[in-house]
Write a structure and sequence with these properties.
Length: about 270
């Protein structure tokens, strides 16, 4: 087991984290581009194929969406583990330049990602049920459905729950870079390590989204639904946001914990 020592000397600095991000991008951009090339190309090709298949067989659209979601999760883990390891341990920590291999860190990362997705889904479902219950006595709208957003109390509840979910997720997200480099870090330890820096972690992880939000919104508004071209554009536009967010999370993890020893876990491939 690897211990994680909290650095109590000063609060996490978002500016310093993004200075680290910039240095990582400058120093390792060739390795980062190589590591994300195959999963991004695979996602684009397979998404295009799935869209074409759904157009020919509309009855199978649910299966297509499920399969596409699973592929996105696997490709996301591929990209995430590579970005975390390059940031924290350097490009030599990867088994090959394309990051095309499976390892214990990949499996651990996938497990935490699935658990996080399930938890977020359960919270969202509970919130939706609660909103329906709160508004059940309200007069229905013209289409016969409850006016979910007609009550200020409902809006406040939804907004508060969303903000709380983002806050908790941002603090617990420290388990992800730890898993990527083979370190043992559970949710309780992640919460302890991030004490006093919760909102700074939120800022570190949402700044890339806010910076490119106008571009993302433009693509979402003007993209043609279920178009292969639109999917390619959306993937390429969102890729820099994903990579920078992953690097920022890695840099924040490094600043909040004792630095991982290089070569401590090489991520040996699973046979």
């Amino acid at each position: 087991m690897n211990s994680h020592a909290v650095r109590p000397d000063s609060p996490l600095s978002v500016a310093e984290v993004y200075a680290d991000v910039w240095q990582t991008l400058i120093a390792h951009w060739p390795a980062l581009m190589s590591a994300v090339a195959l999963p991004v190309a695979g996602e684009i090709l397979l998404t295009g194929w799935l869209l074409g298949m759904s157009a020919e067989n509309g009855d199978a659209i649910d299966q297509v969406i499920l399969f596409s979601s699973l592929l996105r999760l696997l490709f996301g883990v591929w990209i995430a583990v590579a970005c975390h390891r390059i940031t924290l341990l350097g490009p030599r920590s990867l088994a090959n330049a394309w990051a095309a291999y499976a390892s214990r860190p990949h499996m651990a990362y996938l497990g935490w990602a699935v658990l996080g997705a399930i938890a977020a889904w359960l919270v969202s479902l509970a919130l939706f049920v609660l909103l329906i219950s709160v508004q059940a006595s309200e007069a229905p709208s013209d289409d016969g459905l409850p006016r979910l957003w007609g009550n200020p109390a409902t809006l406040t509840l939804a907004l508060t729950t969303t903000v709380a979910l983002v806050y908790v997720a941002s603090r617990l997200a420290l388990v992800l870079p730890a898993a990527a480099v083979g370190h043992m870090l559970g949710p309780i330890s992640a919460w302890r390590i991030s004490t006093g820096n919760g909102w700074r972690l939120v800022a570190c992880q949402i700044l890339p989204i806010l910076a490119l939000f106008p571009v993302l919104l433009t693509v979402a508004v003007f993209a043609e639904p279920e178009s292969a071209v639109s999917e390619v554009i959306a993937t390429l536009v969102s890729l820099p946001v994903l990579v920078v967010t992953l690097i920022a999370l890695s840099c924040a993890y490094r600043r909040l914990t004792a630095p991982p020893a290089e070569g401590n876990d090489s991520g040996d491939a699973v046979a």
